[in-house]
C-alpha cells in the first residue's frame, strides 16, 4: 500500500517520492493518521477502509472550496484514492505548535472573513452554477465524523436544519435504539428558535478544538472540514462545545463580523446536532446529554 501511495504522490507532484520513514500521528478519532517521510519531504496521510474513499474525496473538495476563499489556511490536498484494500488521503504536512494570542485573534478574524463568503450554488449533476444565492446545502453530500451528512440545496434554513441536520440524525439514532421522548416537540419548535434568517455562509461544519491549530510560524489553520453553506453560527457554536477556544479567537471574530445577540439562544440547538451524531458514532453515553439539551432548549 505505502509504495502505491508513494507512486501516486510522485505522479501528481511530478517529483519522485520514495517513502523512507513512516510514523503514526495521533489526534483523530475516525481515521488513522501517519507522517510519511522521504526525499526530504513529509506528507500527512489518513487511512481508512476502502469503502470510505468518498469521505476523502469530499474532504478534498471541502479543502479546495475553503482554499478558494483566500481567507484562512487549510492543508493542501495532494491526492486520494484506494491502495490495496484501504482508502487514503495525502495532505501537505504542517508543523503545528506556535500558539499565541495574536494567532488566535487571526484565527477568529480569518474565520469571520471565510463566513462572509457565499459560494456559488452549483449542481455537479447538471453542471449549473448560479452565484450569490441565499441557499443552504452543498453540491454533494459529505460526512460528519463518518456519518453521512446530507447537503441537498434548500432555500429555507429552518427547513434545511430540521430535515437534513437534526431530523436525519434522529432517524439514524432511532435505528440505533436511541430514546429521545421530546424529539417531535423539539422539531416542531425549531422554527421559533431559528427565525433570524441567516446569510448563507461557507462553514467548516466540524469546528471542534482538534480541527483548528496554529503552525510553528503562528499561522492559524483549520483541518478536516465537513463543509457546506449554512448559518455561520454553527461553527461558533461548535467551538464552544468541548471547552471553548481561547478568548482571543472570539475577539478576533467579532472585530470582523460581530455575532448577533440571539446566537447564545441558538447555540444549544446547533450543538445538539453534533451530540446526536456522537450518540450515533460512539454510543449511549451521549443519549442523556442530548436529552438534557432538548429540555434546556424547550425551557
Ligand atoms: N496536514 C497535517 N499536517 C500535520 N499534522 C496534521 C495534518 N492534518 C492533521 N494533522 C494532525 O492529525 C490529527 C488528526 O487529523 P484529522 O482531524 O484530520 O483526522 P481525523 O481522523 O479525520 O479526525 P476527526 O476525528 O476530527 O474526524 C490532527 O489533530 C492534527 O494534530
Automatic annotation (TrEMBL):
Keywords attached to this entry: ATP-binding, Kinase, Nucleotide-binding, Transferase
One Pfam entry name: Fructosamin_kin
GO terms for MF: ATP binding; kinase activity
Keyword field contains Kinase: yes
Upper taxonomic lineage: Bacteria, Bacillati, Cyanobacteriota, Cyanophyceae, Coleofasciculales
Protein name according to UniProt: Fructosamine kinase family protein
Cited SUPFAM superfamilies: Protein kinase-like (PK-like) (SSF56112)
Family recorded in the similarity comment: Belongs to the fructosamine kinase family.
GO cellular component: cytoplasm
